[in-house]
Each structure stands twice: as structure tokens, then as C-alpha cells.
Design a protein that fits this description.
This protein is α+β, with helices and mostly antiparallel strands and 338 residues long. It contains twelve helices and four strands; from the N terminus they run ααβαβααβαβαααααα. Helix content is 55%, strand content 9%. The protein folds into two domains: 145 residues, 3-Layer(aba) Sandwich (NADH Oxidase), CATH 3.40.109.10; 171 residues, Four Helix Bundle (Hemerythrin (Met), subunit A). The chain starts with a helix and ends in a 12-residue tail after the last helix. It has a four-stranded antiparallel sheet, with helices on both faces.
């Protein structure tokens, strides 16, 4: 599996089949954890592999979010040396704890690569020390509950947009036009064309991946679906009303036709989504129909709607539109796999 695809498609899995994980696979996972980064190569981690069902249930009994995970096949508890061999600066900044987190996450990725489903479980530190006889010089970082996932356990989840969580140079300072972030100096046509192109690239990547691996393709379709839903809401709640209010064309005209086309587009999105959620790979016909509708629809917008808005609005009005688009609540479009 490609490294980026492994990271992008990894999910928390808490529902496992009754199938034992071979020791060989557990050893491979531990080996990946052993190669994690650590300050001054101190390698402060220790891994405790727990397979005894009574012990797993005892650990999960005291884990606030772990009761439902007591049927995991294997638990890997990660601890680190409280007095790791680092300098004072690194010790004061508790970088040894970060090493343990890196090791746990790397093992999570490795487990997914090897066909398992895993979940990070925060354990009750005192009870875990008692149950597993962990010495006081060790600090519990967390644990990885793993096993073979049941069919359908791998579910997509919404993610915040990149522009919502990224700053440049200083906290809160935004970079113009980064993955959907509006530039106040851009015109509507320029910005929306770029978003069309970005969505087209994501959809093309999804189609290429779907033909070889439907599991890897799912997160790509998820990103495409969320992005296109946001694009549609931008138009229907912000841009179309500008056109309709200035022309008085609320019941007829291009925006009415485009709203009808949006309904078709969303219908295709849901049909493709439902098919790939069921693991069905025969969606090429639906994809072609969606591309046909989108191509015609985007051409209308880029040749009629967007240029008209740029020509008939002031810079202040366009900036106000960009601000509304930027501040659009995620719950209006970030809907998938509900």
C-alpha cells in the first residue's frame, strides 16, 4: 500500500472478527514501533503485548472509552522511561512522551497495512500499572487495540478543511487561496474555476484508484463529495442570490436551471457513495453520467454566471461574498456516511 494512502485511509476500528492475529504479524508491528523517532535516539519506549482475554477485559474495564473494545484480539500497551537518556532541554519539554506517541501511531499504521483494524485506547494509568506490574520508572502513554476488522467496520469520517486548521508565519494568519481559502483580491470566476479544477483532479484520482483498489478509493471519493457539496452550497446560498436579487430572476433564468442540475449532481453523488460503501466497484456508468452533467454545468457557470457577477458587483460586494463563503459553517456541507 502507498504510504500516503495508508495514512489517508486509516480509521479507528473497534469491531473485530473472532480471528486470532498471528504472532508473526504482531512482531512485524512491534518492529515498526521500534523504528520510530526519539530524542537523541534515546528509544525510551517499551511495548507490552497482551492477549489474555481476562487481562484485556480488566484493562478495558477501567478505560473510560474502552469498555466496548474488550473483545480486541490483542492489546499493545506503550510505556516510556520517565528518565529517558536525553538532555535537560528535551526532558523539560517531555519529548520522551512524544516518542511513545510516535511509536504507537506507527504501529497503528503498520497494523492497517498488514490487514488489521486498530484503535488507540487511553488507559487508566494507575490501574494499568497495577494489572500489568509496570514499574514506577515507566509512564503509560496509551495502548493499541487491534484485530481483524469485521466487514463494514471501516467507515469514513468528516475532516475539517485544510484552511480551517492552517496558519502561515503566525497563528491565525492565513495564506491566500490555499485549498479553498478565499483571496480577497481574486474575482469570482478565477476562484471558482480553480475549485472546479481541484475537484476534477480529486475525482480523476478517485476513478483511477477505484479501478484497482476500492478501499483506497473511498477516502478520495469522500473528499470529492464533501468538496463538491461545499461548492454547491457556496453557489446556492451566496452566489445565486446575488444574481437573482440584482436581476429579479428568482423563478426563471440560469440560476434556476443550475439549481435543478445541482439536484441531479447530488443524486449521482449519493448513488456512487452508496455503491462504494457496499464495496461495489461497478459505478463507471454513474461516474460517466456525473462527469457529463458536471462538464455542462461548469461551462454554464464559467461562461455565464461567474463573469456576470464579476461585472455587475463592486469589489466590496465580492469581498463580502468571499467572507460568507469563508465563514460557511461546516455542518452545511460536511455530510457523508450518516
Amino acid at each position: 500500500m502507498d504510504t500516503l494512502q495508508t495514512i489517508l485511509s486509516r480509521r479507528s476500528i473497534g469491531d473485530w472478527a473472532k480471528k486470532n492475529v498471528p504472532d508473526k504479524i504482531i512482531s512485524q508491528i512491534l518492529g515498526v514501533g521500534r523504528h520510530s523517532p526519539s530524542p537523541l535516539n534515546s528509544q525510551p519506549w517499551h511495548f507490552i503485548v497482551v492477549k489474555n482475554k481476562k487481562t484485556i477485559k480488566a484493562l478495558m474495564k477501567y478505560a473510560h472509552h474502552g469498555v466496548s473494545l474488550s473483545h480486541a484480539n490483542t492489546i499493545i500497551v506503550v510505556t516510556v522511561e520517565r528518565k529517558a537518556e536525553t538532555d535537560q532541554w528535551l526532558f523539560e519539554h517531555e519529548q520522551f512522551l512524544c516518542s511513545g506517541a510516535c511509536a504507537l501511531y506507527n504501529m497503528w499504521l503498520a497494523s492497517y497495512e498488514l490487514g488489521l483494524g486498530s484503535c488507540w485506547v487511553t488507559l487508566d494509568e494507575l490501574k494499568t500499572e497495577e494489572i500489568l506490574s509496570i514499574p514506577s520508572r515507566q509512564k503509560v502513554v496509551g495502548s493499541l487495540a487491534t484485530g481483524y476488522p469485521k466487514e463494514g467496520a471501516h467507515k469514513e469520517v468528516p475532516r475539517k478543511e485544510l484552511f480551517e486548521i492552517t496558519s502561515y508565519e503566525k497563528y491565525g494568519k492565513k495564506k491566500d487561496d490555499v485549498n479553498g481559502k478565499m483571496s480577497k483580491s481574486s474575482n469570482i470566476l478565477e476562484f471558482m474555476e480553480k475549485d472546479h479544477d481541484r475537484l476534477d483532479e480529486v475525482f480523476d484520482e478517485f476513478r483511477n484508484m477505484r479501478s484497482t483498489d476500492i478501499t483506497k478509493a473511498r477516502p478520495l471519493f469522500h473528499d470529492f463529495k464533501i468538496g463538491l457539496q461545499r461548492h454547491i452550497v457556496w453557489e446556492e446560498e451566496i452566489l445565486f442570490p446575488i444574481f437573482e436579487n440584482k436581476t429579479g430572476m428568482h423563478d426563471t433564468g440560469p440560476s434556476v436551471v443550475m439549481r435543478m442540475e445541482h439536484r441531479k449532481i447530488k443524486d449521482f453523488l449519493e448513488k456512487i457513495h452508496d455503491s462504494i460503501a457496499r464495496g461495489e466497484n461497478k459505478v463507471e456508468g454513474l461516474e460517466n453520467d456525473l462527469v457529463e452533467v458536471l462538464t455542462e454545468h461548469n461551462n454554464k457557470e464559467e461562461n455565464i454566471l461567474y463573469p456576470w457577477i464579476d461585472n455587475e458587483t463592486s469589489e466590496q460586494e465580492r469581498n463580502e461574498a468571499f467572507t460568507k463563503m469563508e465563514n460557511l459553517p461546516a455542518e452545511k456541507y460536511n455530510k457523508c456516511c450518516e
